[in-house]
Amino acid sequence: MDIKELNEIIFDPIVCVKCGYCKSTCPTYLATRDERFSPRGRLSLSYKIIKEKEQMGFSDLIRAFHDIDTCSKCGECEKTCPMGLNPYISFMRAKSKTLPGKIEVFSAKLTTKSKLFFTLLFYFGSKIKKSSYKINLPEISFRREEKIEDEEKSDTIFFPSCFGYTIFSQTKRKVEKLMEELGVKFKTAPQSFSCCGAPLLFSGSIKDFEENKKELIKKLEEKSTNDLSTLLVLGPTCTYIMKKFYKELNEKFPKVKIKEASDFILEKIKEKEAKISVNEIIIIHKPCHEKYSDALDKKTFFKELGFNVEETEFPCCGFGGSMFFKYPKISNQLLDLLSEKIKEEKNDKNVLVISNSPGCILQISRKHETKHILDLIYERIIIGNHQQK
User: Fold this and answer.
1) Phi and psi of 257, rounded to 5°?
2) DSSP code at position 378
3) Whether residue 90 is found in the same domain as residue 117
4) Is residue 186 part of a domain?
5) Which of 64, 92, 120, 378 sits at a 20 to 30 Å CA gap from 204?
6) In whole angstroms, what is the distance from residue 35 CA to residue 42 CA?
7) What is the rounded distance in angstroms from the CA atom of residue 370 to the CA atom of residue 161?
């Protein structure tokens, strides 16, 4: 470990003033009320791993890894920290120095490189968890075709993310259809564009994340115009990752705006002043990673569109990436807390939950009927218009 890497890992634990503000918003602490599952507790464990790893027994290292790894990666601690720290990045890096952490890094590499592995992981994971979201395996293609030719370069690229390339491929196709209907000129990035690298970042492998980022930016250079203006990303997590950690993208393309696909499409619909006379009751779940400043106020949008929108400020659903698979107890605790809030709003009414996060949809659909926001828009606008004709 070089001195730069060491400094990046131990900086936050040392500077942390132990004020505990982070505990007020940390979902895992609020669910368990256990200091080990708070950002402050995890930072302390991170420092211990770096300082005393050689002296710690195997069982102690496993326990420390577990307590750190149960972080939901929501980033709420970053928002509330008065010192401006990034706690979750520090303890993600620290856990990667343990043996189970190294295994997770290997798994993250496999997840980012193999669409087949990614698909099977979430397909069987969703079946085991009894998610009601329907995954149509026959519709998923694993061919890495290059569909953006040199003469077809575009200044607007749609990046479907790993979910859009695989188990949410039907949503990807609806996004494309919606944008065509709205007159948006765009090109869809092929599967070879890989993923944004979130699994690598959250496993603590910053080096691999940086390499993945360079590879993706290079492909964008090859397949888009020099005046790339819009990069549409399916899902808030990938959008958040690219906005926060892809500074080099803005250096290559000074004019580029990174937009979450549902926000972009809803804004286009808003410009057309569309109305849907439905009076349908929906609950909008705002994902943890939808913390970028240009996110659309979806509650107001759907009200203006004609929907009866219930409360939208809910806690973390408990998907948390690997938490969905590895830590069912704490994942279920978080889902139960969210479910209680949803039940209060539903009050025995027939209410649909919608979200723009594939992970949240897989998790929440275990207890409530849940759809992707753009699936709902597609059904009400595209199919609705065709029925009227």
Assistant:
1) -120, 125
2) I
3) no
4) yes
5) 120
6) 8
7) 20
| Paired tokens of 209 | 């994340």
Domain final residue, candidates 49, 66, 97 = 97
Residues 289 and 318 in one domain: yes
pLDDT tens profile 245-287: 999 998 889 889 999 999 999 999 988 776 666 678 899 999 9
What is the predicted pLDDT for the residue at 345?
81
The SS3 call for residue 121 is: helix
Tokens describing residue 182 = 């709205």
Tokens coding 281 = 């009751």
φ, ψ of residue 147 in degrees (nearest 5): -100, -10
Two tokens, residue 5: 């890497």
Report how many domains make up the chain. 3
Q: Tell me: do 295 and 378 sit in the same domain.
A: yes
Please give the DSSP secondary-structure letter assigned to residue 380: I
Q: How remote is the C-alpha of 380 from its chain's centroid?
A: 25
In the chain, the amino acid numbered 189 is A
**What is the rounded distance in angstroms from the CA atom of residue 377 to the CA atom of residue 271?**
15
Per residue in 135-182, pLDDT tens?
888 778 776 555 554 456 678 999 999 999 999 999 999 999 999 999
- Best CA proximity match to 372, nearest among 128, 156, 175, 157: 175
Q: Which of 125, 96, 111 is nearest to 319 (CA)?
A: 125
Q: Which amino acid is at 104?
A: E
| Burial (CB count <10 Å: 0-12, 13-18, 19+), residue 196 | buried
> For the whole model, what pTM was predicted?
0.89
| Residue 364 counted as domain residue | yes
Nearest CA among 24, 14, 20 for reference residue 90: 14
Q: How would residue 389 be classed by pLDDT, with cut points 50, 70 and 90?
A: very low
The helix (run of H) or strand (run of E) holding residue 277 is none
Burial of 149 (0-12, 13-18, 19+ CB in 10 A): exposed
Nearest to 195 by CA among 153, 234, 248: 234
What pLDDT score was predicted for residue 289?
92
Last residue in a domain, options 243, 264, 285: 264
Q: Look up the domain containing 38 and give its range.
A: 3-97
